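Q: Please design a sequence for this.
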């Protein structure tokens, strides 16, 4: 049995798409690891280990790797099986471009929608937002109690390989428009 220091340690925020990406990579590859959820007290530790202030950070083999994309690249290098990306170079480039698109263009607006003040985890708001999105041509389901616990109502956004980048752009525009609305929906 490896010692605790030999097992990779992931410093992360529980609610972050970047952190979730690193957790998924570790889980997909079946890599035993430990997780430490950090809060605002992480700043000095993160800066000391990596000279930057963002999470996630994976401590592996005595080194700290910051940035979810770099973490996945490190996992691929150290544990190539099962792969996270296609072997075909063209498909791999497409997968990496899609990953970057979701990191930079999709993740932030979706997280803002789910965690922002306008959201409030209210079932009536989730239903209203679902209806407003349907009126704009999107079938986005409101998930609310009793399906989820009280205070955790949300929208279920499901993307498939059939969606084009323009579909996602239109959805993000619709979400931004609805969440900027000052009046009740």
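A: Design:
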């Amino acid at each position: 049995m490896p010692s605790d220091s030999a097992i990779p340690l992931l410093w992360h925020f529980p609610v972050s798409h970047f952190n979730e990406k690193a957790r998924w990579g570790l889980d997909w590859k079946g890599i035993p690891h430990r997780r430490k959820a950090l809060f605002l007290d992480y700043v000095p530790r993160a800066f000391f280990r990596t000279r930057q202030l963002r999470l996630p950070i994976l401590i592996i083999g005595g080194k700290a790797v910051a940035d979810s994309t770099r973490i996945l690249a490190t996992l691929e290098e150290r544990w190539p099986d099962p792969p996270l990306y296609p072997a075909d170079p063209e498909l791999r480039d497409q997968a990496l471009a899609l990953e970057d698109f979701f990191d930079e263009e999709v993740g932030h607006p979706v997280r803002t929608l789910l965690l922002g003040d306008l959201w409030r985890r209210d079932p009536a708001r989730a239903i209203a937002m679902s209806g407003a999105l349907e009126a704009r041509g999107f079938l986005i389901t409101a998930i609310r109690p009793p399906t989820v616990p009280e205070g955790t109502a949300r929208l279920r956004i499901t993307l498939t390989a059939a969606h084009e980048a323009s579909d996602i752009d239109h959805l993000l525009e619709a979400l931004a428009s609805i969440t900027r609305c000052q009046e009740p929906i």
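Q: Thanks. Anything notable?
A: The first strand starts at residue 9 and ends at 12. The CA atoms of residues 16 and 165 lie 22 Å apart.
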